[in-house]
Amino acid sequence: MKMKKLMYILVVLLSILTFSISYTNQNREAVSILGSFSNNQISKITDKKNYRILIIDEPKQNNQKFLDELISLCQDNDYILATSQMINIDTSTHKEITYIYDQNNLLLDYLNKNYGYKIKLKSFDDGYITTDLSDTKTNGYLKITSQSYLGDNIYEYTGFDNFINKLESVNNDIIYNIYGNDLEKLSKEINNIAQGLIEYEVLDDEMYEESIPVNLDIYIIIVFTVIALLICIINEFLRMKKEITVMKLMGYSKRNLFSNLFSQFVIKIIFIYLFVNIILWFIMVRNLSIRGLSFLGMIILNCLIFIIITVIITVCAYLLLVRNINIKKSLNYNGLLKISFAFKNVIIILLCLVLFYSLAGAKEIFNETRLYLAKKNISDDYYLIENMVNNKNAYKAIEILLKQKDTLACFFYSEANQETELPYIIVNKNYLNLYSDEYKDIQAPALLVPEAYKDEAIEQYKYGTDCKVYYVKGHHTYLNVVNNMRGEIGDPVILLSDKDYYSWSHLLLRNDKEPTYYHNLVADYINENEMRLTDAGESLTIMFRYYTLPLLVKLITYIGIYLIVYLTTIYMYMMLYFYQNAKEISIKKTLGYSFFERYKDVYLINLAGYLLPFSINVFLLKINIFTTLAVILFLIICEVCIESIMMKKFDHKTTVNLLKGSE
């Protein structure tokens, strides 16, 4: 009964995993396509090549003239033009608008065919379509498998009408993607219309290529879980040995035996798998759009594959085991025992590989998680300046923001590709106060130097200031709270400064005030659209949610799946061992053999079995010997514990029952 419950749990687990991985892959693919549509997806749709140019800080009227000429060029040569612009709706909601000129409407047809929902648009020049289902002014919607997967991101597609007039984003940069067949000709034409009007830079298209790797996770998990199911099914058949023998004595044919005994067994497993998938679909998708139906087709395919595999496994197990049960003599499990032992060693080798590569990434993943929690504790109270216009007025705006009593400023100089022999950061007093009160009496500018660097030349770290030097005792680590991609730095030289040295990307602004407060502060120098504020904690959470968290979940899931298969294999091996040696063990127990004397052979054989995985991992695969020893020691402890528990339970059965053949 316990094995049957484990089998049902494995079916539920397999169903959840196949569903969730398919769900994640399809949504991730859709978001990747919609989010990078202007950059590289158009080439895949039209087979045209991309010529990419960057325009920086040109006057609005020049930008408009160039765009008019560019659209005229595209119209005459059947080129496609696309660009995108990111807009902050609020501190956590981002809208990416993709502007498209495509006189043949190939891109609109593609979006409508793959993601369209109630689209009435005939051309991008006539309106826009969006993923925002709450937008009542749109000409149609784009729906992916699950709209919730988009989070707070909105993707919108429209024509170039009023593009330049709406272009009030920070830095006023534009990246145009022009798609054509002859890039050499296109390059000359772009140069001709830009000459004397604007300056531009040609970008390498390969820098923007984004590829989604083929995800083999689902196949790996299916294989391992099916193996565990196979082990459970074999054990279940062995458990029914006596029942099968009795039915044979009663004259049941092989066909009747299978239909009466095993068809229900198969139907239950298939029903559980289908039921879990249906429930998950209603909870997570419940969407009959184009992508929703496409995903439903994928789930149906997964179910069909599962049904076929389950039927094949059951029939094979029946043919190999049940039909060979002899009424007159007991079943010999020696062959199965050897197969199980060999399979257990294969699992150990694979587990060593999986755990080695998983543990290699685990340290980084857990470190990122630790840093996220530490940064989140600070970032939740601040706005992050996501972008700011780059001109002389911006520096004056930064000075004003720095003077705010709660502004944090930190510049991790040695991490910013700057050449310094020692780790070096520039921070203001508010940042330093996050870590210790011992610096509260130190006035800026000042240089704080760890005692370990007392004999080092430190003049360059004063950055031209006449500042007092303080030597710091002990070990100190500082978080880079303004950069989500960077972590922490240990024992740096610290230049304490409340002015200069900082750009907008080095600041955090207290969020106890509305963003309009800060926009009004700097209104004399830059307008509202030239400084973009976002919630620092939310920005950090998004990074963690989309990058670190999936890796963490994947790591834990994989190790869990493999360990379940491994433990199930051990359980099956020991059950076969008991089936084969029950009477011998009971006789030894009756004759007074100690626990170790009764079971030393199985301990020694199983422990010796680890020599092969150890040799393969260390000498053939060149995996670190200490890591391999640690993994194998962990597996040995698990196996010894499980085997000992099973042996103790087996010994609790009476000698009389064992001699009768009771299991």
UniProtKB/TrEMBL annotation:
Q: Does the keyword Mitochondrion apply?
A: no
- Classify the source by domain of life: Bacteria
List the InterPro entries hit by this protein, alphabetically: Bacteriocin_ass
Tagged with keyword Transmembrane helix: yes
* Pfam families, per the entry: DUF1430 (PF07242)
Q: Where is coiled-coil annotated?
A: none
Q: Which keywords label this protein?
A: Membrane, Transmembrane, Transmembrane helix
Q: Where are the transmembrane segments?
A: 218-238, 258-283, 295-321, 341-360, 555-579, 600-619, 625-642
Protein name in the entry: DUF1430 domain-containing protein
The protein's organism comes out as: Thomasclavelia spiroformis
> What does UniProt list as this organism's lineage?
Bacteria, Bacillati, Bacillota, Erysipelotrichia, Erysipelotrichales
